[in-house]
Amino acid sequence: MLQLLDQEGQYEVPSKYSQYGEIIDQLGEADYKKFYRDMARIRRFDEEATALQRQGQLGLWVPAIGQEGAQIGSGYAVGNKDHIFPSYREHGVAITHGVELMSILKMMRGVNHGGWDPNETRFHHYAIVLASQALHAAGYAMGVKFDGLVGTGDPENDLAVITYIGDGATAEGDVSEALLFAAVNESPLMFFVQNNQWAISSNVETTTKVPLFTRGLGFGVPGIRIDGNDVLASYAATKLHMDEIRTGKGPFLIEALTYRIGAHTTSDDPSKYRQSEEVEFWKAKDPIIRFEKFLRRQGIGDDFFEQVTQDGEDLAKEIRESTFALPDPPMENIFENVYTDPHPLVDAQRQWLQDYESSLEDNE
Question: Fewer CB within 10 Å, N- or C-terminus of the chain?
Fold first, then answer.
């Protein structure tokens, strides 16, 4: 397993992983601070979103607490032309590519079906249908290959695709099909598996007999396991292999070993199926605490961490006020974007609703 930062924030590059260390050597203090700031920011956002759901302001929330190192590290390693196909928990990846946090909350509230523009952010909409995003990514990556946008020797124009899937999704047939199509077409596709140990109430040990990073080998997709709670390992592995993918080396798979500290969603009670001792064991591996220890070893003092904490509180206040102020969408929105062209049945339904609302007004 690739690990560059241990639990105490000690940085060391094993000799067999020297190429990943070379990636980290290109980073500076500003990059380190950016990683920490965004990990702390997305966690505070996550906590506030959970509170908003409990207050009835969101229909559902999908926590990602504990997975910030895997998401922020890999998110910043994705190139500015690459396309990202997430599942439904990649809030950390989203903010590294310009997705507004309120857009995510609007979707979870039911105000829209995904309020960001994938063409602008290259971060495609959340896939609530488990594992479907792997096939979407495989198809997009095949198109990239067919269009000659990979392996041209021009790093300014070549691009790659990355899809985020959980350990549970690897048991879905969609992922196997995506691995197969990516391999036989030598598509520029990265499979980033966040192994957070639990597929709702099913432990990963009950869904696989081999390490997940080896799952692609039978299809011809090489892989590596990394410490997903090590933001530097996540960044280095994603950066190195995405760069290789863009040159035409074909697909790759990263298994980021991490842990879902909270519930699967706010409709789930994890105490029903896992032991508190297990949760405490993984809390000790917290990616944010680990990286803070690293930064303090670099001489970064209290002022920075205090400012990050205050920024988090300001963010929480901002999204709380913005969420409470959200108006309900117009009823007519249910008829929009159903078909590309006008449709007589939809028109008839819209007219029926308008007539019905008018009748209510007449009876007042």
Answer: C
